[in-house]
Design a protein that fits this description.
This protein is of the alpha/beta class. The chain has three domains: 2-78, Urease, subunit C, domain 1 (Roll); 101-199, Diaminopimelate Epimerase, Chain A, domain 1 (Roll); 207-523, TIM Barrel (Alpha-Beta Barrel), CATH 3.20.20.140. It is 36% helix and 21% strand. It contains 19 helices and 24 strands. Strands 8, 14, 15, 16, 17, 18, 19, 20 and 21 form a nine-stranded mixed sheet that branches. It has a six-stranded mixed sheet with strand order 3-2-7-22-23-24, with no helix packed on it. The chain has a five-stranded mixed sheet with strand order 9-10-11-12-13. Helix 3 crosses helix 8 and helix 11 (316-328) runs parallel beside helix 12. The chain is globular.
């Protein structure tokens, strides 16, 4: 008997070794998880195998264990795995630059503000002063006072301070004097568009400083689960630096560059064909037609708010010419259209150029207001609606107080966009909104009924919101074959959380902790 038992044990060991030798070797195995694949069936799996940065299998624990062996196995103990978030509307270079700005969020008085700015000026006497996160209540009803104080304390040093909501900024006289006359910007309080225009004249830091800021911006993205981002309004120099840093291995995050149709962007990129590497795509042009709804700057079919209306930033003829140039050179168009009239102009312009059912994936950014009959054009020409959900809550009181029932039905009508059988995409608009995809997710799934007309609320379902920030987002950037879902052959970009973001108590969504972030199979958080 002992001899037979020894033989049986040896035979079992031999079979086990043979079985292990027959298994495929991979770099990483995820086990005992709830993996939301976001594939066409929205399947939830237990396990995944990763090799060379890509998923080679996504299945049950038993299946993966039987087929694969790995140097590293992560026991997730029932935690949740999702594709990494793709931020489809962000200003990556501007966000990186904002990390160098003076943070005024702790200032409680005007004196606190001046003290912080003065400390910066003492240490950096040759630099322009840029602040952020200033609480407007500090100088409520004292706008002229703080502008006078800024001018008196900094008569020769340009100063620009962003308010905490980034809708307005303060500019002193020294700053305004540095701007060209055609900018038409005077000192005092200016709206976001004028502040963005003014900020472009701030001397840029050298490449070595900017590289450090971009690296920090990248890590901040990884920390909140963003595995791909967008540089909307990128300049030629922005793209060149990002490309160089990526090729040198100093920057990992994939960037989708959306170019302004100006200067070297035209001569070096747009006049040629799209440019791309493994981590960078330069194949999109972005412009704005109008401005913020709540400041009466959106271009509407009729005056609204205080009987005001916005004006087009560029002419209809210029829009048509830019769109034709984009189409001729194979570039995607992304047009920021806020008001219903601006959106109608954009849709009609797209319709003049695009063939029906094309694959150009042109987009309307910040889609807030649309006449319902115009929505059919989205479907006819495969136009992608791009929304920034974080803009809804700050706008809600305004639209409730200023819109009639008909306009309310058209405002933030996200489900109507989806009814056109097209995906929808969500972006943060960072740094002009917070860098927190879970806050974006919550804003997308939380939209109250508008009691004024008793219509169904227009929030996305959690499934739709997840798709909008993963697979639909990837589609909008021509990346749906490489990322956006957890499937065999795609990059292993994913996040891990302890909470199920599709079923948890929604008000807690903005506070969800991203425990792990992986980019191409490598842990980056």
């Amino acid at each position: 008997m002992p001899c037979k038992r020894i033989l049986l044990i040896l035979l079992s060991l031999s079979l086990l070794v043979t079985s292990c030798n027959n298994k495929e070797h991979v770099d990483l195995i995820l086990r005992n998880a709830k993996i939301y694949t976001v594939n066409s069936n929205f399947a939830v799996m237990q396990s995944a195998a990763i090799r060379n940065g890509k998923f080679v299998a996504v299945s049950s624990d038993a299946n993966i264990n039987a087929r694969y062996t790995a140097d590293s196995v992560i026991e997730l103990k029932g935690k949740f795995v999702y594709p990494g978030f793709i931020d489809t509307h962000a200003h990556f270079s501007q966000y990186a630059l904002s990390l160098s700005h003076i943070n005024l969020d702790t200032a409680k008085t005007i004196k606190n503000v001046i003290d912080q700015l003065s400390d910066f000026q003492r240490d950096n006497p040759d630099m322009w002063i840029v602040g952020k996160n200033l609480d407007a209540s500090i100088f409520y009803d004292k706008e002229m006072q703080i502008c006078t104080i800024l001018n008196n304390h900094f008569p020769e040093t340009p100063v620009l301070i962003w308010l905490s909501d980034y809708n307005f900024a303060l500019i002193n006289k020294a700053f305004a004097d540095k701007l060209p006359a055609e900018a038409n910007i005077k000192s005092g309080i200016v709206n976001q568009r004028k502040a963005v225009t003014a900020s472009k004249f701030i001397p840029a830091p050298n490449d070595s400083i900017m590289a450090v800021l971009l690296k920090q911006a990248e890590q901040n993205c990884f920390n909140v689960g963003i595995t791909s981002t967008t540089d909307f309004g990128a300049t030629y120099n922005d793209v060149q630096l990002i490309d160089s840093l990526q090729k040198n291995g100093c920057l990992q995050i994939p960037v989708y560059a959306v170019l302004e149709p100006l200067g070297e962007n035209v001569s070096k990129y747009i006049s040629k064909m799209p440019y791309q590497t493994d981590n960078l795509k330069v194949q999109s042009i972005g412009i704005s037609l109008d401005d913020q709804l709540t400041q009466n700057l959106a271009v509407m079919r009729a005056p609204y708010g205080n009987n005001h209306n916005g004006q087009l930033v560029i002419s209809a003829d210029s829009l048509l010419q830019i769109c034709r140039t984009a189409y001729e050179h194979g570039f995607q168009m992304c047009v920021n259209s806020i008001g219903d009239s601006a959106t109608r102009l954009t849709l009609n312009t797209f319709a003049k150029i695009l063939p029906i059912k094309n694959d150009m994936r042109w987009r309307i950014e910040g889609l807030h207001m649309t006449v319902r009959k115009d929505l059919r054009i989205l479907n006819h020409y495969n136009i992608i609606p791009s929304i920034q959900p974080l803009q809804y809550q700050p706008s809600k009181a305004f639209i409730d107080n200023n819109f009639n029932r008909k306009l309310l039905r058209e405002a933030f009508a996200w489900k109507h966009f989806l009814s056109q059988d097209r995906g929808i995409i969500c972006g943060s608009d960072c740094p002009y909104n917070q860098l927190n995809p879970m806050a974006v997710f919550y804003a997308a799934v939380k939209q109250e009924k508008r009691k004024m007309h008793n219509k169904q609320s227009q929030e996305l379902s959690t499934t739709q919101a997840l798709k909008a920030m993963t697979i639909w987002a990837a589609y909008s950037q021509f990346d749906d074959k490489q990322k956006g879902s957890i499937e065999v052959g795609k990059w292993a970009d994913f996040i891990v959380t302890s909470e199920n973001i599709t079923t948890m108590y929604q008000p807690n969504l903005p506070n969800v902790t991203i425990e792990r972030t992986y980019l191409r199979g490598k842990r980056v958080k």
